[in-house]
């Protein structure tokens, strides 16, 4: 296996691992909160912020995962009646446009992140807000990349009905 | 130029481009035309992290996915057959009631379809109900408890109206009372539809025997306490909703992993990634919809729509008719929380001047918004069901259409018979 | 023509918004349409933090927010927000008369034009059990808004366990006993329905709350100086009216709470003093960590002392 494809596989694994870890941490922290409140009185003061922000991260990571096979929701009311060749062509055009839109979103989210970095306020504990926001440009960039690659690959993997 | 781009977006939408991308592009177009910086899109998405109500969503999603990976629905089917098999249409009725209660608890955040719908759907189908009917039923039920306490949109309505300077004062308890009969009306109408739609269907009927009844409970003994546990958790005051969700997720992981041994560590990564793909798909659409809503608010679109409604009003009757129309349009494009905060302060003073009681108005408002969960383009129930049951949006439109029409009938009855919402007030 | 887009959490139709809209119309008339204000009420633009973020991103030019939200812009704005600092409305009035202008200048140096400060009222402790002394507080379960460092550290100083909960769960928390103490203004308690669950109010002003109408300075500077003067003048008048009305509102709310059978329990002077001593260390710690100007803090305490000496016969 070549180095780039090894790296790619490593990144895919890392993506999934991060997702699973985040979700389990959400479970553990919320349950700890309950136990602390009922047994010790009180609770983790940063837990609420942590759980809210991890929902954003889970959502964006989930959306990234969903773009691996371009399985984001779409309205198929009309496409389903097209002949296969046209269906494929349509899908590639859609993927290309989606890639373009997401690159634009990634660019401006990056600009947003830079401004937030300069403003430097804290989200919770000692975590700056821009760390928490970083997932937005990152996710848009990865989604853009995946849709663009799909637009240029000869056979299309868009799966509306599979 | 703008018109051409709008048309292009419509074509993209109809030709199967991802919904989130179309809404995102529409947002950019709107921002461009009003001179809002595109960086605001990210600021709007970040508001996902500012919405405490959403925390329960990934957790219930996980629990729901794990349960549906295991044989829980078979055990549930056995249980309902043993206990309610003798009762005609018992399962449809029970499904409607359970979903309504569950939705009220979870703030109509779509959790009902994920956690309950996915268990009920296979049970309904195996019991003999038509697939399309069953799909419509569980998708619709996902917002059925909106009028029951402690539904969050209902509370939000009460809080907003209380801060307005209008004559009629009411308490939150009265608002809760007001929602009971209208919600019951919806449930009854949907039940009647369930009977009618399945009148030719041969449902499995079984005799009640104590032996099977006890055995079926034994089989599901570990999962059966879950609903009770969720209710006690929320109402007993030990847990907030998000914590109930976390405890549920943990409990489900433990019993399915160690007691029933139906899920393994290797399979868990796949389940988690499936569950989170759905969460991501839904929340990304929600996030970009919030950005699009921001454009609508900045351009004062809801206000202008309402000015138009006001222009065409001559009496109370036509006001109510146009109000329903206006709210249906709004429900189609906005999520419920934005709709409540934007529109309630606009309409309450005018409605009151037409002699409509603010409690009645609140019920009309939320009943309309409940339909909004089923209408395109932003219909959260449709999106969630599409992911959860792996059905196309088109199929879901077809399946939910009769249910939506019934809810529409209910909304008209609720609108024109104020007694349903106000019976407990002294005349 | 310059349009200032201003967002606030206050709902449309409330007294705040009625007055602000009226002020906006007056400004438009007096400047001959060269300046217009556009309002986004009811939190439709998001919570205070989001609104300030949108000001930085130039979608909005102004916001009416609680003073605490501005701590990242101008730390000294929290000067009045020390726990148990003021003992009554007269003290607040005296200090604000002396210091408001200075704080507004400070805001302006931090690129925000403050058009006025409006009273929100005192936050009181409200509870299901009577609380009059430090001992009464021990091991009660109080709601702590998780983003409010002042409230959290104050509760900890009083040996109360702060229970972090989102605002929307507070009512349910009170009902089920997850928490039994909340803090807020009387008006807020009525609006959020807390009055249906609490039985006692500790009759001791805990914390002074106020709102700020702030405009982004670069946007404000686009207005011609003569028109700037008109905007400042009119909005200062509007905020003054709101300020006045809010006091009456809170007095009415207190009466309403009493009407509901809620008991106002007053700590004895000794008990109140014990609480003040207990919080002193936390307050001076806060003055340091929150980056308050030592010079202004000293001034504040001096004014308070001055007033208290005058008040004594
Ligand atoms: Na809709
Ligand atoms: Na909707």
From TrEMBL, chain A:
PANTHER family in UniProt: 2,3-DIKETO-L-GULONATE TRAP TRANSPORTER SMALL PERMEASE PROTEIN YIAM
Top-level taxonomic group: Bacteria
Keyword Protease (UniProt): no
The family this protein is said to belong to: Belongs to the TRAP transporter small permease family.
Subunit-level organization: The complex comprises the extracytoplasmic solute receptor protein and the two transmembrane proteins.
Coiled coil: none
Topology in the lipid bilayer: Multi-pass membrane protein
Function: Part of the tripartite ATP-independent periplasmic (TRAP) transport system.
Annotated localization: Cell inner membrane
Tripartite ATP-independent periplasmic transporters DctQ component domain location: 26-151
Annotated protein name in UniProt: TRAP transporter small permease protein
From TrEMBL, chain B:
Major place of residence: membrane
Intracellular or extracellular location(s): Cell inner membrane
TRAP C4-dicarboxylate transport system permease DctM subunit domain sequence ranges: 7-420
Coiled-coil stretches: none
Residues that span the membrane, as ranges: 45-67, 88-121, 133-160, 172-196, 228-254, 275-297, 317-347, 359-384, 404-426
Membrane topology label: Multi-pass membrane protein
Keyword set, alphabetical order: Cell inner membrane, Cell membrane, Membrane, Transmembrane, Transmembrane helix, Transport
Described purpose of this protein according to its UniProt entry: Part of the tripartite ATP-independent periplasmic (TRAP) transport system.
Subunit: The complex comprises the extracytoplasmic solute receptor protein and the two transmembrane proteins.
Recorded family membership: Belongs to the TRAP transporter large permease family.
Protein name (record): TRAP transporter large permease protein
Native species: Methylomonas rivi
């Amino acid at each position: 296996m070549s180095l780039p494809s090894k790296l790619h596989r490593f990144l895919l694994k890392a993506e999934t691992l991060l997702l699973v870890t985040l979700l389990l941490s959400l479970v553990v922290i919320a349950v700890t909160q309950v136990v602390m409140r009922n047994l010790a009185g009180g609770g983790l003061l940063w837990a609420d912020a942590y759980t809210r922000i991890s929902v954003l991260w889970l959502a964006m990571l989930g959306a990234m995962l969903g773009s691996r096979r371009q399985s984001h929701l779409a309205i198929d009311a009309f496409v389903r009646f097209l002949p296969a060749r046209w269906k494929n062509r349509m899908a590639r055009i859609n993927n290309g446009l989606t890639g373009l839109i997401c690159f634009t979103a990634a660019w401006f989210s990056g600009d947003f992140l830079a401004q937030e970095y300069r403003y430097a306020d804290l989200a919770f504990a000692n975590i700056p807000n821009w760390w928490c926001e970083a997932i937005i440009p990152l996710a848009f960039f990865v989604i853009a990349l995946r849709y663009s690659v799909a637009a240029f690959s000869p056979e299309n993997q868009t799966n509306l009905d599979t | 130029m703008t018109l051409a781009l709008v048309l292009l977006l419509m074509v993209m939408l109809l030709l199967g481009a991802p919904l989130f991308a179309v809404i995102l592009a529409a947002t950019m177009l709107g921002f461009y035309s009003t001179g809002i910086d595109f960086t605001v899109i990210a600021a709007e998405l970040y508001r996902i992290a500012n919405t405490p109500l959403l925390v329960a969503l990934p957790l219930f999603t996980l629990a729901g996915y794990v349960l549906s990976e295991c044989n829980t629905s078979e055990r549930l089917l056995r249980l309902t057959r043993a206990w309610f098999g003798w009762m005609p249409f018992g399962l449809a009725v029970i499904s409607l009631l359970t979903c309504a209660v569950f939705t009220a608890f979870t703030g109509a955040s779509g959790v009902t379809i994920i956690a309950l719908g996915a268990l009920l759907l296979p049970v309904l189908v195996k019991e003999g109900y038509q697939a399309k009917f069953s799909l419509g039923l569980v998708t619709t039920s996902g917002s059925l408890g909106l009028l029951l306490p402690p539904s969050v949109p209902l509370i939000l309505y009460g809080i907003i109206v209380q801060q307005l300077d209008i004559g009629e004062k009411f308490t939150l308890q009265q608002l809760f009372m007001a929602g009971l009969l209208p919600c019951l009306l919806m449930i009854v109408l949907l039940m009647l539809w369930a009977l009618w739609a399945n009148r030719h269907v041969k449902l499995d009927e079984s005799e009640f025997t104590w032996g099977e009844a006890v055995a079926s409970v034994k089989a599901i003994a570990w999962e059966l306490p879950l609903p009770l546990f969720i209710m006690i958790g929320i109402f007993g005051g030990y847990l907030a909703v998000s914590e109930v969700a976390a405890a549920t997720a943990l409990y489900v992981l433990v019993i399915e992993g160690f007691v029933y041994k139906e899920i393994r560590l290797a399979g868990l990564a796949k389940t988690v990634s499936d569950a989170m793909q759905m969460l991501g798909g839904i929340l990304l659409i929600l996030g970009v919809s919030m950005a699009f809503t921001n454009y609508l608010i900045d351009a004062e679109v809801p206000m202008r729509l309402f000015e138009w409604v006001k222009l065409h009003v001559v009496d109370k009757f036509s006001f109510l008719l146009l109000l329903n129309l206006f709210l249906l349009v709004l429900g189609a494009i906005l999520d419920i929380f934005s709709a409540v905060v934007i529109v309630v302060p606009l309409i309450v003073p005018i409605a009151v001047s037409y002699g409509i009681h603010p409690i009645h108005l609140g019920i009309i408002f939320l009943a309309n918004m409940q339909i909004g969960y089923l209408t395109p383009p932003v219909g959260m129930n449709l999106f969630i069901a599409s992911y959860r049951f792996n059905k196309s949006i088109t199929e879901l439109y077809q399946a939910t259409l009769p249910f939506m029409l019934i809810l529409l009938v209910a909304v008209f009855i609720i609108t024109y018979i104020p007694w349903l919402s106000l019976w407990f007030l002294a005349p | 023509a310059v349009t200032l887009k201003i967002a606030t959490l206050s709902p449309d139709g409330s007294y705040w918004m009625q007055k602000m809209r009226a002020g906006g119309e007056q400004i438009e008339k007096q400047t001959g349409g060269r300046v217009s204000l556009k309002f986004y009420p009811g939190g439709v633009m998001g919570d205070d933090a989001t609104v300030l973020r949108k000001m930085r991103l130039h979608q909005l030019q102004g916001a009416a927010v609680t003073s605490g939200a501005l701590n990242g812009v101008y730390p000294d704005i929290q000067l009045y927000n020390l726990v148990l600092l003021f003992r009554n409305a007269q003290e607040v009035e005296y200090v604000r008369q002396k210091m408001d202008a200075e704080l507004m200048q400070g805001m302006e140096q931090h690129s925000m034009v403050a058009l006025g400060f409006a009273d929100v009222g005192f936050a009181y402790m409200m509870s299901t059990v009577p609380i009059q002394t430090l001992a009464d507080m021990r091991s009660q379960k109080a709601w702590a808004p998780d983003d409010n460092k002042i409230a959290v550290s104050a509760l900890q100083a009083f040996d109360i366990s702060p229970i972090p909960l989102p605002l929307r769960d507070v009512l349910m928390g009170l009902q089920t006993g997850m928490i039994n103490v909340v803090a807020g203004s009387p008006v807020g308690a009525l609006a959020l329905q807390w009055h249906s669950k609490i039985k006692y109010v500790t009759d001791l002003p805990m914390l002074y709350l106020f709102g700020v109408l702030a405009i982004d300075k670069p946007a404000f500077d686009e207005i011609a100086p003569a028109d700037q003067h008109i905007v400042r003048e009119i909005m200062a008048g509007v905020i003054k009216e709101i300020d006045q009305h809010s006091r009456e509102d809170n007095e009415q709310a207190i009466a309403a709470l009493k009407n509901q059978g809620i008991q106002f329990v007053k700590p004895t002077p000794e008990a109140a003093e014990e609480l003040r001593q207990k919080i002193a260390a936390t307050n001076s710690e806060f003055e340091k960590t929150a980056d308050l100007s030592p010079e202004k803090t000293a001034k504040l305490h001096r004014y308070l002392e001055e007033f208290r000496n005058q008040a004594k016969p």
